[in-house]
Every structure is written in C-alpha cells, then in structure tokens.
Amino acid sequence: MADSLVSRIVYRNLLRASKRLDTRIDFLRATSKMASANREVVKLRRFMPVFDEPRTIAFATVQEAVKASVRHSLDASAPVDLDMGLQALRRISDRVVELSAEEWQPKPEEVRLDIGDSFRHKRHGYRGVVVAW
Hints:
Number of strands: 2
Number of domains: 1
Shape: globular
Helix content: 40-55%
Structural class: mainly alpha
Strand order of the largest sheet: 1-2
Radius of gyration: 16 Å
C-alpha cells in the first residue's frame, strides 16, 4: 500500500514538473528561441525505457510523454521503478532551471548530435562521445 502511495506522489510530481517544462518551452518558442518538446523527450529517453525508438515517437508536450510512459508501464504490470521516476523528476527539474538561465542558447541547427551521444567513426572505426559543440 505504501509503495502505491509513493508511486502516485512521484507520478503527480512528474506531471507538475513536466508541465513547468512545457510552459518554459512555450515561452522560449514565443521569444523566438528554438525549443521543442519532442527534443526534450528525446533527452529524457533514458528515463522512459518503454519507448524502443524514441526518435520516431513525436509528442506535443513533455507531459504527454510522461503520461504515456507511466500508462505503458502500468499496462505491462511490471513493478513500478521508483528510482527511475525520481531520477526523471530530478532531470526534468534541472532542465527547467537550465532553460530558465539568461545565457541559455539553443543548439545550432547544423549540429546533429547531442552532448553525451556516443558514435562510431565511419572511416576509422573508433568510438567516441560528444562532450561539447
């Protein structure tokens, strides 16, 4: 019983945090800074493991993605992973702070990878991780 109560509290806070992130994204769009809810969902894909190929799934808001992820995990009758939910809550809250900073600038259009993405070099075959752009 206590476990379900805690999961409901985490879910409610995830919805609130994702709503704040969506509001911030809308504000950035209105001020002509490029921001995309779907791009934020892709950044959160680690916390939403139910989506096999997150780049093919488009969401209008981060809150929609959170709802879909939780619904899918409840339908799968798998045990609720509270650690994953709390990590997602922390990441969403941190992202709201990052986007609220005055010096924040969107990633340039010509940059195809995100910071933290790993890749394999086509010609030489070595692996690498993007640390800056």
